[in-house]
Specification:
Blueprint: E1 2-13, E2 22-34, E3 38-42, H1 49-56, E4 64-69, E5 72-73, H2 78-84, E6 85-88, H3 101-108, H4 116-129, H5 145-157, E7 163-167, H6 175-186, E8 191-195, H7 199-203, E9 207-212, E10 215-220, H8 222-234
Parallel strand pairs: 3-8, 3-9, 6-7, 7-8
Antiparallel strand pairs: 1-2, 1-4, 4-5, 9-10
Helix pairs in contact: 3-4, 3-5, 5-6
Length: 240
């Protein structure tokens, strides 16, 4: 369960004409409890949706208010929260750090305190589960974009988090790989928070949050959320 209680994110902006520091609000005070298995977060670029998602695993900390995952406060219990919450970025290059897939997944497994041989065997089992067994020792840079995103997911899911946050995981993929990743995410047992521009994926969620101008402006059933967002994006820029 994910709980946001007045969670607010601010940052310092460039000084104004008078030289005084400016405080920018990236996310207005947000209060909600997310219990659904699949929650989609949609919004325009720069709306604050990624900021909201990063609060869930402590990549961003609230400037005011609290964020809790399964009762753990992200500010006070950061390490415990990160053991429960996996995070997948838009660009898998941001989280693939070792030369080959088997090494990269094995790195994720180090927190399980396995012997090296057992860790290697487990990593190969996980790669097989994601259809990457034949690529275990292929250089990561030689993989396709879709294969890299599967590998990023494999590394995160290897340690069996209870919550998975994905920040636009299919934005850089072609249609075939987008479907592969979407199908994989649909079948997960974990609670999923999916930040996406893909309205078909959002429509399959149990709940949709629409973020605009740093605030959650809609929170409810998926079809209504997608309709709200579609209407919002059809309005002229700057219109209320």
């Amino acid at each position: 369960m994910i709980e946001l209680d007045g969670a607010t994110v601010t940052a310092y902006g460039p000084p104004g004409p008078d030289g005084a520091e400016r405080v920018l609000t990236l996310l207005e005070p947000t209060t909600c409890t997310l219990t659904e298995r699949r929650v989609a977060v949609v919004g325009a670029n720069g709306s604050g949706k990624s900021t909201l998602a990063r609060l869930v695993n402590g990549l961003a900390l609230p400037s005011a208010g609290t964020v809790r995952v399964d009762g753990l406060d992200t500010a006070r219990d950061g390490a415990a929260v990160r053991r429960r919450v996996g995070f997948v970025f838009t660009d898998p290059e941001a989280q693939l750090v070792l030369p080959t897939p088997v090494e990269d997944v094995a790195l994720s497994l180090r927190r399980l305190d396995l012997a090296p041989r057992e860790r290697d065997a487990r990593a190969r089992e996980i790669l097989a589960r994601f259809g990457l067994a034949a690529h275990a020792e292929v250089p990561v840079h030689a993989l396709s974009g879709g294969q890299k995103q599967l590998l990023a997911l494999a590394g995160v899911l290897a340690v069996e988090p209870t919550v998975l946050v994905c920040d636009e995981p299919t934005t850089l993929l072609d249609l075939r790989w987008r479907r592969v990743v979407d199908d994989l995410l649909d079948d997960l047992d974990q609670q999923l928070v999916l930040v996406t521009h893909d309205l078909e994926a959002a429509a399959r969620a149990d709940r949709v949050l629409v973020v605009d101008g740093g605030a959650v402006v809609f929170d409810g059933e998926a079809a209504a959320g997608v309709a709200y967002y579609t209407d919002l994006m059809a309005r002229p820029v700057g219109a209320p």
